[in-house]
Design brief:
With 301 residues, this protein is mainly alpha-helical. It is 75% helix and 0% strand. It has a single domain, classed as Growth Hormone, Chain: A. The longest helix has 37 residues. The termini are far apart. The protein is elongated, with a radius of gyration of 23 Å.
């Protein structure tokens, strides 16, 4: 789509069908009655108001630790995924189509596989360890960090891919846990609101700040790379913006090649630095495991 449709047209083509489907769903599918999926004979209760739910959540350590960890993971994940294709294109001189089919699709499958694998293992371990839902993703995130680091440090595309493949499996061990913990530490009357609050924070910080931070850091490290080079007095960051063909025409072969290298190295360092936060998120999940038994309402079994 990037090759066929320039600029904002891609977003319109992808977004308009979603709006149309949303309108169809709004007018054709009814909201299930509250308690519709509960066993027969379950007493009906009303949902708590937002203020009451927030008051109850204020003292719930496990809930906020989970939100903090999941937000950090989203911050890193959205930031990295927004520039992952660009990294492969810049660092390994590949086309976007090559990157998408040879690397991004398999990495997406690794992420999905990691989510399901972690869910399966958690279900098995929870019979014996009630806090496995917290410490399993904690260890997964901590272990994913060096794989991402070495992957984005690699000078070979396929070596990078296999490090990132393993990293993705470990990284996405958190995804099911964030919802399980969120729903497990609150009662049925507050679960929808608790999830809504969590997703608001995750998306606001993750989507809002993750890609922006990686982009700013990329420019910072690219500037440092330029300042330390022989072209420090001849090139600027704006001069190195644009596609390879344009730079080749305006700057010449050597300077255009340097611009591509500078851009790749700036992005490489930015992603590696942000990726270190996976270890922080993992540690927070390990701390969550210490408070989870006390806060859990829906016990894992």
């Amino acid at each position: 789509m990037r090759r066929l449709f320039p600029g904002a047209k891609r977003f319109l083509l992808l977004g308009i069908p979603g709006i149309l489907i949303g309108i169809i769903v709004w007018f054709t599918i009814k909201e299930p009655p509250r308690g519709y999926s509960d066993p027969v004979g379950t007493p009906k209760v009303e949902a708590r108001r937002l203020g009451e739910t927030l008051r109850r959540l204020t003292s719930n350590k496990s809930y906020w630790l989970n939100v903090a960890a999941a937000t950090i993971v989203a911050f890193v994940g959205y930031g990295v995924s927004s520039f992952q294709a660009s990294f492969f294109v810049r660092a390994f001189d590949l086309s976007l189509a090559q990157v998408a089919m040879q690397f991004l699709v398999p990495l997406g499958l690794a992420a999905a596989g990691g989510t399901f694998l972690a869910g399966y293992i958690t279900e098995k371990l929870s019979k014996r360890y009630s806090t496995a839902v917290a410490w399993l993703p904690g260890f997964g995130l901590i272990l994913s960090m060096p794989f991402y680091w070495f992957g984005f440090s690699s000078s070979d595309a396929y070596t990078a891919f296999w490090f990132l493949f393993i990293g993705a499996i470990l990284h996405y061990s958190y995804l099911g846990a964030q919802y399980t913990i969120c729903q497990g530490v609150v009662g049925a009357r507050s679960r929808a609101t608790a999830i809504a609050i969590m997703l608001f924070v995750i998306n606001f910080i993750g989507y809002g700040a993750g890609p922006l931070t990686v982009g700013l850091l990329s420019d910072h490290y690219a500037s440092a790379f330029l300042a330390a080079s022989q072209y420090a007095n001849e090139l600027t960051i704006p001069m190195c913006k644009g596609d390879a063909a344009t730079m080749l025409q305006t700057l010449g072969t050597e300077k255009a090649a340097f611009c591509v290298q500078m851009s790749a190295e700036g992005l490489r360092q930015a992603i590696k630095m942000v990726g270190l936060l996976f270890a922080v998120a993992g540690l927070i999940y390990l701390v969550t495991a210490k408070t989870l038994d006390k806060d859990m309402v829906a016990k894992m079994n």
